[in-house]
Give the backbone structure.
Amino acid sequence: VPLPVPLPVQVSELVTSVLDGYNVCIFAYGRTGSGKTYTMVGEGGGEGETGGAAADVRGEGASGCGAGRGIVHRTVHELFHRIRVRSAGGEEGLRVSCSQCEIYNEAIKDLLLTTSTGKARERGEGSAAADVSGTTGGGGGGGGGGAGGGVLKIVTDPETGKTMITPPLVEVAVTNPSDVSEALEVGEAAR
């Protein structure tokens, strides 16, 4: 079922790019109170209001995923709608995964790398911080590498020119909006 409230054209084009095999990031930044969370999550979501945002991704509640829903929720529904359409047309092999990070005060925190308490697990030497000042070079993050260790860094691969976070963020396989909702809940709890 298509969304009752269409996505902005720019975001709809990003969904097409994802389905064509490209990596996509929708990034919100701005001053405190400028509307970043409202734009991305919509009504009833945000810091200190866990559950509301995730329930909306699942399409629960009276408003479902229509008016008042943020870009994330509406994009998730559009993505899985298009996957169903493509699968019905015989296209196979579409896999979706998500990762979630927070960049705050020049530190990167992998929100899906959690401890048993639900708080983001620290990387590297006693720090959940990552170096965002070293944004060039192809070296890995300090200590350990992979999704489980090392300080997170933003680097540019000298061979491909692609910018990435290293070591890679934890990726969670998702097959429907409910799976995305669960990942959002884990990430929100780790903030």
The beta strands are 96-98, 101-104, 107-110, 153-156, 163-166, 172-174. Residues 46-64, 123-146 have pLDDT under 50 and may be disordered. The longest strand covers residues 101-104.
